[in-house]
Amino acid sequence: MRETVWLIPLKDLDDDARAIKLGDVAVMELAAGQEDFVGDPFAMMLMGLEDESRVPYVIEADGAAVGVFTLQTGAATLAGWPDDDSAWLLRGFLIDQGHQGRGLGSQAAAAAAREAHKLTARLGSGQAGVVLSVNERNPAARSAYEKAGFAESGRYLGGSTGPQLTMYREFAG
After folding, report:
1. What is this structure's pTM?
2. Which is nearest to 127 in space by CA: 79, 72, 78, 80?
3. For strand 87-95 and strand 129-135, is the pairing parallel, antiparallel, or unpaired?
4. How large is the average pLDDT for residues 57-86?
5. DSSP string spanning 35-100?
6. Are 135 and 159 in contact (CB under 8 A)?
7. SS3 content of the chain, % helix, strand, coil (to 5)
């Protein structure tokens, strides 16, 4: 049976619940080599809480925190997208090393796109989809994003760790 992922928006939690979730994030670990592709999950969540354009999330499965990501508005060009405002930027996406290889990344990436669509409707912000960049040296992440409905839409050479693929998922309906 496939696990279900839940997305917990940190900005919607009260201070006590947020502190508990941040404690869960603080003990997450990257798999060997992933530090080239993604930053420290705890630091990313703190930055997301401070920045009005970012919405940080904790990914949960089977009652445990298994990963994080941030949706950001007005920043899509950071992934090689032609403009900042027509797409949400999915950034800082990671699954804790102890939970990798179970399909949670694909499920969470698809759920993130659905969440961005809901945010767009609620905020009336006009985005048509979600964009991300994935390092060309990270085939596992690329595969997870493809399984989540993201399609390659170009190559981005602005990444600090080498060439990136720009991937996009348009909102359905």
Report:
1. 0.92
2. 72
3. parallel
4. 95
5. GGT---HHHHHHHHHH-TTEEEEEEEETTEEEEEEEEESS-GGGGT-S-SSSEEEEEEEEE-GGGT
6. yes
7. 35, 30, 35
